[in-house]
Amino acid sequence: MTTVTGGMCRAQRLVLPGGERTWTVLGRDCRPVASAEEYLEYLRVQRCSPNTVKSYARALALWWEYLEQYGLSWDAVTLEDFGGFLSWLRTGEGPQVASIEPRTSRFAESTISVRLRAVTSYYGYHQLNGVEVGEDLHRIVHGRGGSYKPLLEHIARRKGRRQAVIRVRQPRAAAPPTLTPRQIERICEVCARWDDEAREWRGSVRNRLLWSLLAESGLRLGEALGLQHRDWCTGRGDTPFIEIVPRENEHGVRAKSGYRRLYISDEVDRLYGEYVWQLCEAGADLAIEDFDASHVFVNLGREPRFAPWKPDSVYDLVDRLRRELAGQVPEGWTPHWFRHSHATALLLSGVPVHVVSRRLGHADVQTTLSTYAHVTEDAELRAVADWAKLTAGWRAAQDASQIGRC
């Protein structure tokens, strides 16, 4: 059982009888906070990600600690109290302290924004159950100043749009980190390399397959580790593909965005075939009762043998590769960098944003646009440069014709 503290109130991890892990909020009396648990149960019923439940539980633990320190009742707070919550998140100062010196914020503004969003969502839920305090957090906006109108303005024209009253201004997010093709190649080569003389692979084909698959598909690490052999549809004269299927995993990894199909190259498919052949040579097909329903990425050198590979074990491999490739690849690279590299490469090659969004499994194309805004902006700048170059040629031709007339 793991505890994440937030003052004296805290977010507590729980293991349910079926083995599922979840989170709740404990008050100062070490008992679950009823209204918070009711909301978290609502998130579970909606099948939200366990990480989402964890994040919201942390936010509500901080909110409850703030209420306790200031002697506030959760169902009788005012808009001013929510503003005070933002100040408290930044400074941590209690009601008896009024500092006049500037201090370093306890949390990044992005973290504060996430915490505030969780709390407002919590009150939005309880507003539907008759708690009127949630009405103060949003206002209905009709129309906009200026000539710009959003795409779905005609839908919101009559009823208006809900707009948060309290918002946290965040600095523009930095561009997501990526790996160059050569850096990805070096990571794969260190894991396994084809020996032309011996006509066989040297090293760990499993490790190379993981990095090759992440780089080519843009999968999240959890989605890759959740793959089963029945999800891999190898090519038989047509294009091979993999299926991302939502299902529970004993290590807590899951398909975050539901089912989708991703086409892959023949090269990665052949590498998978070599890996399956090595698994069979190691006796996996005999040791596992249902090989098709077993996981693609499994333990090979440690017990329990052929059990699903843990994310922690993958990060142990990352640490080893960082040391081995020091100076050749970025020092702090993670498996998620392959996903960013894949998305960036697709966008730079001109693949439409909505296609990239579907391949990445984003629930909303706006997520793709927000995450990779720098890529789309670069493309726009290149288009502007090409347009300027083209029109410059027109002007030159026009000037030449005018000179000829003179």
From TrEMBL:
It holds the Pfam family Phage_integrase. Gene3D superfamilies: 1.10.150.130, Intergrase catalytic core. Keywords: DNA integration, DNA recombination, DNA-binding. InterPro entries: CB, DNA_brk_join_enz, Integrase-like_cat_sf, Integrase_catalytic, Integrase_recombinase_N, Integrase_SAM-like_N, Tyrosine_recombinase_XerCD. The keyword Lipid biosynthesis does not apply. It comes from the Bacteria. Residues 30-127 form the Core-binding (CB) domain. Transmembrane segments: none annotated. Residues 174-386 form the Tyr recombinase domain. Belongs to the 'phage' integrase family. This is Tyrosine-type recombinase/integrase.
